[in-house]
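sry for the spam today, last one i promise. struct tokens for design, 97 residues
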């Protein structure tokens, strides 16, 4: 693509994705939402697509977060929860590989 980025479709059968699914259940208390295709201007093709790497994103937003708006915000409690989930993801993934 001359402008923008190429689309990317991730591998949902990867150990990293399985680890993220387990962590979502344990740390956040909800099942993970799997969205294998990236949209928008995410550079996932350049980062992961060329190398067939898996990718996960742990969100911490809330309904009033105003994502990508001038007043975008997160709740401090969600920040700490996402941080704990990230540490748990690293540990879980390390156990699987």
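last one done:
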């Amino acid at each position: 693509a001359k402008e923008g980025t190429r689309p990317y479709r991730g591998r949902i059968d990867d150990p990293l994705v399985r680890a993220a699914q387990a962590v979502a259940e344990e740390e956040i208390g909800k099942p993970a939402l799997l969205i294998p295709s990236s949209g928008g201007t995410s550079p996932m093709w350049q980062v992961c697509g060329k190398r067939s790497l898996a990718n996960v994103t742990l969100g911490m937003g809330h309904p009033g977060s105003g994502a990508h708006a001038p007043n975008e915000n997160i709740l401090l409690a969600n920040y700490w929860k996402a941080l704990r989930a990230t540490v748990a993801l690293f540990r879980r993934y390390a156990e699987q590989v």
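The beta strands are 8-9, 37-38. ok im logging off now
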